[in-house]
Structure formats: C-alpha cells, structure tokens
Write a structure and sequence with these properties.
The structure holds 2 protein chains of 2 kinds.
Chain A: E1 4-7, E2 10-13, E3 19-25, E4 31-37, E5 43-51, E6 54-57, E7 64-66, E8 76-78, E9 87-94, H1 98-101, E10 106-107, E11 111-115
Parallel strand pairs in A: 2-11
Antiparallel strand pairs in A: 1-3, 3-8, 4-5, 4-9, 5-6, 7-8, 9-10, 9-11
Chain B: E1 4-5, E2 10-14, E3 19-25, E4 32-38, E5 45-51, E6 56-59, E7 62-67, E8 72-77, E9 86-93, E10 99-100, E11 104-109
Parallel strand pairs in B: 2-11
Antiparallel strand pairs in B: 1-3, 3-8, 4-5, 4-9, 6-7, 7-8, 9-10, 9-11
The chains are: A mainly beta, B mainly beta.
Chain lengths: 116, 110
C-alpha cells in the first residue's frame, strides 16, 4: 500500500541541538516538499525538491536544511539556527505540478517537534 | 503578504444543511486550485480541485466554484455531515509551488 511515512511522530529537542525528521515515500513521486504548520496558521513551505540531488528554498527556509540523495527520501534537519522550531512538520510528495499532472500532493501524518 | 486568504477562521453548520467555505487569492498567475481537509495531528487529505479553465467541479457531496474575475473560489458541501467537521485548507498553484490559506474550521452540529 503506497504512501508517505514520517518519523518520529513526536520529537523533543534540547536548546542548541540539531534534529533530523525523516520522510519516506513509495509512491514513485518525483517531487517532495516540507511544510511547517503553527496554530492558526496555514501550511508554510520550507523546502521542496522536484528531482533527486536538487532542491529549492521555500518561504521559510532559514534555520533548516534538506538533502535529496534518493527519490524516495527527503529528510529535513532543524538546526540550532532555527530560533522557534516548535511546530507541526508535514512532508508531502507529488508527481510534479498538479496543473500538469492533474495529481494533488499527498501528505504524511506529520511530526510534532517540541523544545525541552 | 498572503496570496491565498480564508477570511473565516471558523464556521458552524447544522447537519443536513449546506456548508460554504470561501477562499480569495491575489496572484493572477494561479491556475490550479485545491481543497484539503485536515483532522488534528494528521496530514491533510485531498478533497477536490479545479483548473482555471473551468468554473465548477463536482464530486459527490463536494462542489468547488471558481470565479476568476473576482479571484474567488468556494467549496460547497451538501448535505453536511458530522464527519465533515475538520479544518479545510484552500491551496493554489501557478508560477509557484502550492500556496495554502490559513484554513477554516468547520463544525457540523448534529
């Protein structure tokens, strides 16, 4: 059964520590995305990747880093430079632009990151 | 600046009645629009979409209307059911990756 797996579901970080959130998909999608959701806010784009070994910054990339070494994997690292990392993080994937592929983005179930 | 706006943070509707959720956008380059439904602590799930070449798309109880001249779209749910209670996000795509609104929390009261 194809889908997107995010792990862990809950993650705690100490001040000054980097943490990496995992995102794996077996949908054979080319594009992958990372979003952040804060209470009362929509989903804001952190980074996206349209093809392996390539990625672009989204609207709020500062304090985050990504890699895309494999088609199915798009890990997100929240660095110590991110001053307000407490949020719900969502990973998504798609065949590409929805207007071309007529396929929407599919989302994982998210990782909630909290600061200790 | 918000390119996709959902001006109603919440909406309450009686079971069996129509729910109308609204969304406005500012970027004239958007050419594809989607609605997602989200439950707490879960990822959004896709509901329905519409291309800018259409003004209406229907899927069962869900209909999306697009008014390009007004840069406005709406989602109609008829009849509303208690299981429809969730946060609904409007999203738009064009010359940028998907841009999401802040969401509208729909409560369907039995």
């Amino acid at each position: 059964d194809g889908g997107i797996t995010q792990s862990p579901k809950y993650l705690f970080r100490k001040e000054g520590q980097n943490v990496t959130l995992s995102c794996e998909q077996n949908l054979n999608h080319d594009a992958m995305y990372w979003y952040r959701q804060d209470p009362g806010q929509g989903l804001r784009l952190i980074y996206y990747s349209q093809i392996v070994n390539d990625f672009q910054k989204g609207d709020i990339a500062e304090g985050y880093s990504v890699s895309r070494e494999k088609k199915e994997s798009f890990p997100l690292t929240v660095t110590s430079a991110q001053k307000n990392p407490t949020a719900f993080y969502l990973c998504a994937s798609s065949m590409g632009q929805a207007v071309i592929s007529n396929q929407p983005q599919h989302f994982g179930d998210g990782t909630r990151l909290s600061i200790l | 600046d918000q390119q996709v706006k959902q001006n109603s943070p919440s909406l309450s509707v009686q079971e069996g009645r129509i729910s109308i959720l609204n969304c406005d956008y500012t970027n004239s380059m958007f050419d594809y629009f989607l609605w997602y439904k989200k439950y707490p602590a879960e990822g959004p799930t896709f509901l329905i979409s519409i291309s800018s070449i259409k003004d209406k798309n229907e899927d069962g109880r869900f209909t999306v209307f697009l008014n390009k001249s007004a840069k406005h779209l709406s989602l109609h749910i008829v009849p509303s059911q208690p299981g429809d209670s969730a946060v609904y996000f409007c999203a738009a795509e064009g010359n940028t990756p998907l841009v999401f609104g802040k969401g509208t929390r729909l409560s369907v009261i039995a």
